[in-house]
Write a structure and sequence with these properties.
- With 605 residues, this protein is an alpha+beta fold.
- The strands form seven sheets. The chain has an eight-stranded parallel β-barrel with strand order 4-5-6-7-8-9-10-11. Strands 16-25-17-22-19-20 form a six-stranded antiparallel beta sheet, with no helix packed on it.
- A hairpin with a 2-residue loop joins strand 19 and strand 20.
- The longest helix has 18 residues.
- The chain starts with a helix and ends in a 10-residue tail after the last strand.
- The N terminus is likely disordered.
């Protein structure tokens, strides 16, 4: 009998876990309705892909302490399907676990699943291999594009379907596309995504979001229209009424208390005094709102995007996505958070008790040390392919990293070397000596070449600095040398290509031999007594990428404004830690230190 009781109790407990207390959420005629009662969404954006998995719970807890009842997150297609047909939802890509942790913190979740996200993310979230399909256009009804999207959403729904509020989970809404009205006005295209979502198993309510002027093109009849970047209560209501049968709910899907940074441009800071009254007014009026960003985090590896328009030059974004957000890059509360928490508390239901705001985490400095092992890139080349004309990254079969293009120039030769449609950053070498740097930001694609009678080896090392994530050039996003190279107008043919996809650092051959020319990998060891957050000071280095204990810490570039790279305590070992840096333009640099604070606002000429 006791065994039977024990089994019954176990089954009851398992049942309670599998079928937690049910909630209902729906879009009503004037309000969002949670369990049949009006519900004001007080949300903040944070992207799990930009936060170390080890930190997800603490960052979500900070959001709860801020007063938020909901978090919104993009799901970047290219983060989960880096190779066609191979899906990854493990480790830092485990979006389902992020949602489960949000539920444990008492937070609802809004999912923004792309296929297009923007978000200052590489190609706006599209996987690079889409460009291998000749003539394919993203954000279109191209059957190949729609089929690949459908397969991705089917895989995503397997992860998130069971976590919808309709199944006892925290996911209350899913967004269709993203700011589509800034790009086109094809309602059939939007409707196909609505149908795909339903087909794969997303059964919660759907919404679209657009800027005020974009909403006529971007809204989808029958789906809630939300607005981005508008916070005048009267104007928000009038706009949404216009496209939603003269009633709410009224949802500001992106509201910007700050902004992101781009390399070579000023760091963005928005004092909370500039917007706190408006935030109060919006909440007092009962409007729902999502802060973009509540916590920005870090864009590591080669995941940063870039902006470019017909009027503006190419502008790649920094590794830090601190965003001057209420929760800073390291997950600490800022004065902005405290001010917003005070406002939120005024508008919460009576007797609501928020968690205390966690104290600032400890941080540490590490004294200067040397990276005493080096690995010259030109001395550690992978296998090569031989082509008549240079191939783009995509045509070569590589998504990210670097590509080395090598040829022989017969001498004597003198004149203008032009790299037509070079993307995005090129270092040019003649017989191993660097003779030029070409930067797409500055519209540089040419240099004066002077080759002696003996001839010379020409090397062009090209870095993917981030595909464009917004606007007109979305479908013109190939990387590397995308057209041709000419000398005095005559095309140069006959190239050897070496790819460096930077997926891992295995196979690099380090030695203690000095190296002061050409791009170089440097490696060193530093010791930590007790791990704490820290910031790698890259201000004396040139341009490149940092890994610590095998994890990408991010890109650096001495032009600023970002001069440090955030290193979370959870990624450090007590005792010895390994650092590897690829330095592109200052191969003589060997020493590095870590600071106990970030430097995000220092521009250099």
């Amino acid at each position: 009998m006791s065994k039977l009781l024990t089994l019954s109790t176990l089954l009851l407990l398992l049942g309670m876990y599998a079928f937690p207390q049910a909630h209902t959420f729906r879009i009503g005629e004037g309000d969002f309705m949670l369990d049949g009662k009006p519900f004001q969404i007080i949300s903040g954006e944070m992207h799990f892909a930009r936060i170390p998995r080890e930190c997800w719970r603490e960052r979500l807890h900070m959001a709860k302490a801020m007063g938020l009842n909901t978090v919104a997150t993009y799901v970047f297609w290219n983060y989960h399907e880096t190779e066609k047909g191979k899906y990854n939802f493990k480790g830092n890509a485990d979006v389902a676990e992020f949602c489960r942790l949000a539920k444990l913190e008492g937070l609802w979740v809004i999912i923004r699943p792309s296929p297009y996200a923007c978000a200052e993310w590489e190609w706006g979230g599209y996987p690079w291999w889409l460009m291998r399909e000749k003539g394919l256009k993203v954000r279109s009804q191209d059957p190949r594009f729609m089929d690949m999207s459908r397969k991705y959403f089917k895989a995503l729904a397997k992860q998130l379907g069971p976590l919808q509020v309709t199944k006892g989970g925290p996911i209350i809404m899913v967004q269709i596309e993203n700011e589509y009205g800034s790009y086109d006005k094809d309602k059939v295209y939007l409707g196909k995504y609505r149908d795909i979502y339903r087909e794969v198993g997303f059964d919660v309510d759907l919404y679209t979001c657009d800027g005020p002027s974009q909403m006529p093109a971007g809204y989808l009849p029958g789906v809630l229209p939300a607005v981005n970047g508008l916070d005048n209560v009267k104007e928000v209501k009038e706009l949404i009424n216009k496209y939603n049968n003269n009633h709410g709910p009224y949802f500001i899907a992106e509201w910007y208390p700050a902004w992101f940074d781009s390399w070579g441009l000023k760091h963005h800071v928005v004092p909370y005094a500039d917007f706190i009254h408006t935030y109060d007014t919006v909440l007092a009026a009962g409007l729902s709102i999502n802060i973009y960003m509540a916590h920005g985090g870090t864009t590591r590896w080669f995941w940063n995007g870039a902006n470019m328009s017909r009027k503006e030059p190419y502008m790649p974004q920094t590794s830090s996505y601190d965003y001057d957000a209420p929760i800073d890059e390291a997950g600490n509360a800022t004065p902005k958070l405290m001010a917003m928490r005070e406002v939120i508390m005024k508008h919460l239901p009576p007797q609501t008790v928020l968690p205390d705001v966690p104290a600032k985490k400890p941080s540490m400095a590490v004294p200067e040390f040397r990276l005493d092992q080096s690995c010259p890139l030109f001395n550690n080349l992978p296998s090569a392919i031989h082509v008549s004309r240079p191939l783009s990254f995509e045509d070569y079969g590589q998504g990210y990293g670097y590509m080395l293009y090598r040829t022989r120039i017969k001498g004597p030769a003198k004149g203008i070397l032009k790299i037509l449609q070079m993307r995005d950053y090129a270092m040019v070498y003649l017989d191993g000596k660097r003779i030029a740097i070409l930067d797409r930001r500055l519209k540089q694609d040419s240099l004066e070449l002077d080759v002696t009678e003996e001839g010379a080896r020409l090397d062009i090392l090209v870095e993917n600095n981030g595909r464009i994530n917004y606007g007109y050039y979305l479908n013109d996003n190939k990387q590397g040398i995308t057209e041709k190279v000419s000398l005095n107008g005559k095309e140069i043919r006959g190239w050897t290509m070496y790819g460096f996809p930077m997926k891992d650092l295995k196979g690099l051959k380090f030695s203690t031999q000095k190296n002061t020319s050409g791009p170089v990998f440097r490696k060193g060891i530093f010791t930590v007594d007790e791990p704490a957050d820290t910031y790698a000071d890259m201000s004396r280095w040139g341009k490149g990428h940092v890994w610590i204990n095998g994890r990408s810490i991010g890109k650096y570039w001495n032009i600023g404004p970002q001069q440090t790279l955030y290193v979370p305590a959870q990624w450090l070992n007590k005792g010895q830690n390994e650092i590897v840096i690829i330095e592109e333009i200052k191969p003589e640099q060997e020493a590095i230190q870590f600071l106990d604070h970030p430097v995000l606002d220092e521009l250099k000429p």
